[in-house]
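Hey, can you fold this one?
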Amino acid sequence: MARRNGPVSERCAERERTPRVATVATVHSPARWIKPELGHRSIADVTVADVRKLVDKLGVAGLAPSTVTGIISIASGLFRFAVKSGLAERNPVRDLDRDDRPGTARLTEPRYLSADEIAAGLARVGPTFYPVIVACVFAALRISEALGLRWRDVDFDAGTVTVAGQLGAHGELVPVKSDASAATVPLLPALARELREHRSRQASVDPASRPRRRARLRDEPRQAAEPPERAPGAPRGR
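Sure. Predicted structure:
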């Protein structure tokens, strides 16, 4: 048996002293790519040349470099467990030269929307979600980052938006995904105009007349109209 997406299981090690690589190459995981090339081999007999050949065949198959890297990482986990269990003397993946390892560059460039396509898309967005979508489009924010904006993060005078947090799974403000995500970005005119209008709409709503709601999951867009102290999607009390 094998752990899905994992190395050789203890049950496998108990069943045969030198299990075959195919034992862990499950059909429903990326490890299935390992089976055709190495599945017939004993783990102890696989060499760095075999791993290099696997990398080459995955590239010929048209897999993205990042996908190939993930598959080779699974193979490395398999061999690492085999070494710890005394089933192999060495992890051949570690013997790959840097030039033999796949990169993570995109195979194709992403397609960027034109101004007309952006306008057409925004025209189909209702008023509830419009401020959040505009923030995502014109500030390059993730949805959770747009929902986590507070008015203190928006500087109309300096023309900037500071990404300082994001909306968590339970409606709380949590740190952004990575250090690179924490940044100050330009406040483009289209976004500045929408945020000013959004704040004006917020000011016209009496907070006392609004029913209090439980925090939603971050993948469920929040209502656009919020109390005046909040930006497009910041959680309550922030």
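Residues 115-209 form one domain. Let me know if you want another pass with a different chain boundary.
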